[in-house]
Design goal:
single chain; alpha+beta; Glucose Permease (Domain IIA); 2 domains; ten-stranded antiparallel sheet; five-stranded mixed sheet; 3 helices; 22 strands; 16% helix; binds zinc ion
Length: 287
């Protein structure tokens, strides 16, 4: 009898789409992947976390399977958010609730930093430059190229120790408070930097804070960024393969010593690059 019920239930499940996701609380500044097994009639279109939207992308290898990569902002309120998705069936879209996701405070340490005073006390000209650079970058990060170039495990930009993790609370010269929006790789002397995944070079520049910078668009709103470089070896618009050389690390921009600052953006939000790489690699290696 029990077996019969189970068989009947699995037959029912086979006809409906199914979502797989971890419902445990999530730390601010991290990311998580929601997988949906679609059917011949129904496929997921968009994932919603509160009012933020994440596109579903076909799984790189599995037929009829889709995933959305959600990001939680560092500064978001620590509360529970509604999660749901938009299901598309024969030209019609409907909202299906998936549950709630509780955001909790990540375990991020505090750092006191000293930098030269001309990088803390900005001149009106510096402020205009910083605003211009931020506006340009923000516009880029919310631009979604409607195809993902992520189809295999992501690699690190260099095989060198991490000196400062994502999320550290930072006090500059006892004055300016911010948080560390990326991860730092130690690089006392210039070291080659390689692309962590396939993509297109979306932006290169020499910024007030970031110094010589390269931003790669991996598609579907996922970007990686490489800052404080001494030399840039790629040009804007160029396609790069995973592992290809982007240039060398250095000490350009606002910096306390030479290193590579690497950034990872999902849907306009900076998340912990190391946690994001782990999340994606676990997902893509899953049987
Ligand atoms: Zn950094």
């Amino acid at each position: 009898m029990r077996t019969l019920v189970l068989v009947a239930l699995s037959a029912l499940w086979a006809m409906a789409w199914e979502a797989f996701w971890e419902k445990s609380p999530i730390a601010n500044g991290t990311s998580r992947i929601v997988v949906v097994q679609a059917t011949s009639q129904e496929r997921p279109d968009e994932l919603y976390v509160d009012n933020r939207v994440f596109a579903f992308v076909p799984h790189p290898t599995k037929p009829n399977r889709y995933y959305a990569w959600l990001s939680i902002p560092y500064d978001c309120a620590l509360e529970s958010y509604a999660v749901g998705l938009l299901i598309e069936a024969v030209g019609q879209k409907r909202y299906a609730p998936l549950g709630t996701l509780e955001v909790v405070r990540g375990n991020y340490p505090k750092e006191e930093l000293r930098v030269s005073s001309d990088k803390v006390h900005l001149t009106p000209e510096d402020i205009r430059r910083v605003e211009r650079e931020f506006a340009q970058a923000d516009k880029l990060y919310v631009t979604v190229t409607p195809q993902s170039h992520l189809d295999k495990p992501i690699v690190y930009p260099m095989q060198i120790a991490i000196t400062s993790g994502y999320g550290n609370e930072r006090v500059f010269n006892g004055l300016r408070k911010s948080y560390h929006s990326g991860v730092d790789f130690r690089a006392k002397t210039p070291q080659p930097i390689s692309a962590i995944a396939d993509g297109r070079v979306a932006l290169i520049g020499d910024r007030f804070y970031g110094g010589k910078s390269v931003i790669i668009d991996h598609g579907m709103g996922v970007y990686s960024g490489y800052f404080h470089m001494s030399r840039i070896a790629v040009h804007e618009g160029e396609w790069v393969k995973q592992g290809s050389n982007l240039g060398k690390s250095g000490a350009t921009g606002r910096i306390t010593g030479p290193h590579l600052h690497m950034m990872f953006k999902i849907a306009g939000v900076s998340v912990d690059p190391i946690q994001a790489i782990e999340v994606f690699n676990r997902f893509v290696k899953e049987e």
